[in-house]
């Protein structure tokens, strides 16, 4: 108990001398529904204690995978991860991007944006719209449209992640969705491309 108290005290001092967009202060103030398993004490230990990579909670273990000044990625289950990143803006405030991904086995990411008061922002104002076709190179458009539509569902299974430079990388997770002959047919017929977006203080482009 004393250890948690000292960590909390250190954390509050640390936040007080940090910029408002520092991920530590954002994690401490975030609503419980962002990472439901983490209490305030859990968050403090996860962020301040460098030796605490796995935090036991009432919902199971939460594992810290990556932690930087503006970014946190945690594993919440065998199939789930959550990424939280602060994005600086031109008006000296920040936007928070939250990516929740479930891989079962194909990965499907839900991307949401919030302002500094944790009010959700319309995603279409910050990220270009895209469909499955955005990720696929058609070698022969007319011939292969029919094959493509027969292999893939209407649901767009996108795996989203932030790379080490802070760019948002999106990938259509075909390899884990298709198998056997379907995957072979897809690879013989199409090429996949990742989409990479850079934050310019206003939106991703």
Give me some keywords for this one.
alpha+beta, 3-stranded antiparallel beta sheet, 6 helices, 205 residues, 12 strands
**Proportion of helical residues:** 25-40%
Strand count: 12
The total count of helices amounts to 6
Main sheet strand line-up: 1-2-3-4-5-6-7
**What's the pLDDT, averaged over the residues?**
86
- Beta fraction: 25-35%
* Low-pLDDT stretches: 1-20
Topology (elements, then pairings):
Blueprint lengths: L1 H15 L6 H7 L10 H9 L5 E4 L2 E9 L2 E5 L4 E9 L5 E10 L3 E8 L5 E2 L14 E3 L2 H11 L6 E5 L5 E5 L1 H4 L2 H10 E3 L2 E3 L8
Antiparallel strand pairs: 1-2, 2-3, 3-4, 4-5, 5-6, 6-7, 8-11, 9-10, 10-12
Q: How would you describe what is shown here?
A:
The chain is of the alpha+beta class. 27% of the residues lie in helices and 32% in strands. The protein contains six helices and twelve strands. It has helices at residues 2-16, 23-29, 40-48, 141-151, 174-177, 180-189, and strands spanning 54-57, 60-68, 71-75, 80-88, 94-103, 107-114, 120-121, 136-138, 158-162, 168-172, 190-192, 195-197. The chain has a seven-stranded antiparallel beta sheet with strand order 1-2-3-4-5-6-7, covered by helices on one side. It has a three-stranded antiparallel beta sheet with strand order 9-10-12, with no helix packed on it. It has a two-stranded antiparallel sheet with strand order 8-11. Helix 1 packs across helix 3. The longest helix has 15 residues, at 2-16. It starts with a helix and ends in an 8-residue tail after the last strand. Mean pLDDT is 86; it is low at 1-20.
């Amino acid at each position: 108990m004393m250890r948690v108290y000292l960590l909390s005290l250190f954390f509050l001092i640390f936040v007080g001398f940090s910029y408002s967009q520092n991920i530590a202060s954002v994690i401490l103030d975030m609503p419980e529904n962002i990472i439901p398993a983490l209490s305030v004490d859990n968050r403090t230990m996860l962020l301040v204690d460098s030796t605490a990579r796995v935090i036991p909670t009432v919902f199971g273990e939460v594992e810290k995978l990556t932690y930087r000044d503006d970014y946190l990625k945690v594993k919440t289950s065998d199939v789930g991860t959550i990424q939280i990143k602060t994005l600086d803006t031109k008006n000296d405030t920040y936007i928070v991007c939250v990516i929740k991904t479930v891989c079962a086995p194909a990965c499907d990411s839900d991307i949401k944006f919030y302002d500094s008061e944790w009010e959700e922002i319309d995603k279409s104002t910050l990220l270009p719209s895209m469909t499955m076709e955005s990720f696929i190179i058609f070698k022969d458009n007319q011939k292969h449209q029919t094959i493509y539509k027969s292999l893939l569902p209407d649901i767009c299974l996108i795996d989203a992640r932030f790379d080490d430079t802070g760019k948002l990388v999106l990938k259509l997770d075909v390899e884990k969705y298709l198998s056997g002959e379907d995957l072979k047919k897809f690879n013989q017929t199409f090429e996949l491309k990742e989409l990479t977006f850079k934050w310019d203080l206003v939106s991703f482009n």
